[in-house]
């Protein structure tokens, strides 16, 4: 899915298939790693595991680590991407049990698994690996702003965890399905697990954020497209730095705005209202034109997962008419999504 990248000496090898670990999560948005893997790599997921109190499920069979190992699983993936990327204290015993059952542990959290003594000891005792996905390549350069060859599309958002990865992956499959030369460029832990490579942008030192984005999407043939997974939002008080560095370094020719129409405030920051789609379009063009004056909005991706088919179809049509551009839900697909693909390629 991903062409080789400069400065990344070798792809991170993650033993598959996976058992998805949901911890004690009650907020579906924080389980986006598990949901992303279950949706985009279902053949590599044998089931899910959760602790008492968890109210989130991917819909996969709920099994124990021993049952997962018997079913062929090689690794337990921590399927939670919570605020701050922290490891829940109540998870450790379950993770040790998983290693005792013969599974490696894979994490996209900020905390290093080997920094937890109980996990390190269990890994040594069982000859299992502790695999941290959020480890950027060494020697990343500072961004240069140099215009690169090839074409680029970046997904941006009104907030975190509302469909930027899903949209980029859906567009990648649509582009390649039309016979175009394209790569999906992963920038977050789930995308990296799906694609088999990428750069975890939120683990990069700020001074090298734009440079990392340039490395992620290098010079390419004129007709080649990189579909770049966005991160955060330039309106998010917590994560805007990552979003802006990715925007400047990606130099997108086209961007797609991702939005959850049912969300009113920034996730985890209830005092901050979500920006409007129009505000995101205007600000993305204003800031993105610094490194690509030709930047344009290809359309809007709405996460309508909580709506009925009829309500979703009406909302997509109404928003398209209001904004004067294609509006689609890439998971639902259909003519609206095909119109979005057409607009991105126009």
UniProtKB/TrEMBL annotation:
Pfam families referenced in this protein's UniProt entry, alphabetically: DUF1611, DUF1611_N
Full protein name: DUF1611 domain-containing protein
Domain D-glutamate N-acetyltransferase-like C-terminal: 142-335
Top-level taxon of origin: Bacteria
D-glutamate N-acetyltransferase-like N-terminal domain sequence ranges: 63-136
InterPro entries: DgcN-like (IPR011669), DgcN-like_C (IPR035086), DgcN-like_N (IPR035402), P-loop_NTPase (IPR027417)
Organism encoding this protein: Qipengyuania benthica
